[in-house]
Amino acid sequence: MPSDFTVIRDTTPAAAIPKGAVVAMGNFDGVHLGHRAVIEAALQMGRAHGKPALAVTFEPHPRSFFSPNSPQFRLTSETNKLRLLAGTGLAGAVVMTFDKTRAGTPAQDFIHHDLIERLGVSGIAVGYDFHFGKGRVGSPSLLVAEAPRLGIEVDVQAHVDVEERPVSSSAIRMALAEGQIADATAMLGGPWFVTGEVIHGDKRGRDLGYPTANIQLDKTCGLKHGIYAVRVGRGAERLDGVASFGRRPTFDNGAPLLEVFLFDFKDELYGATLDVAFIAFIRDELKFDGVEALVRQMDGDTSRARAALSAAPDAFPKLGVIG
Q1: Is the pTM of this model over 0.90?
Q2: Is the predicted pLDDT of residue 1 greater than 50, yes or no?
């Protein structure tokens, strides 16, 4: 993994920005296979030019800016997006703040000020459906038309299909909402994952013989409530387990919570930050008549999760280190 992945922000001094870089532009939510095609095009262009390749992305997600009252289920937080980008071989990422000023910047001004003057790019790779600038007037065709005059190379990547369906962040969100973990994994090119701090719960799992590490996910998380086979990262360590995401209808029907039971693990994890990768969907969330029926089901869930994980021994996101 590259350890020198550099994050450049609006406040980064111009002198600290590597001039002449090739950039892959996009929102990159999920860093899925379509995004990776754009990134690979930038990497190849960078190698051909002898220049570093960077991602150019926007935070917060433009949709959050334009529709603040309709928060979107994000596949990756800003930090996890950068960790995934760092795992692709890119030299860094330019994170542009998406605010009122940037939303109102004409496409031509964005190209000339942000890309040419500030970044000094020598090449740009984008997806076929990427738009930018005020009114989303900026497009791949505009970049292609401007390229000769600006003396830069532009590469436009077509859509990527998985089983004859176009890959997109929205398609992955839909798959996760339906518990279609295999479909989401195929479109992402690896398991979908979340990151969170282990918090104290009601200790009920411990009484049932299934002590869990509890993580509060973002309230916009659209993952289907149910039981999953998961692989957990604690730093470089990898741990297998089974997880429940939902409201615990047998007990309190409370706020959604991710509860992870780790196999053959005894350490305390309170306060630890864990990466939880979803490997397989086991079943829907159910309400049971009593504790005995629930524990019998949990025993079966554990066996199914172990089988699913043994069939996917290396499944885990490829993450890099953010410099």
Answers
A1: yes
A2: no
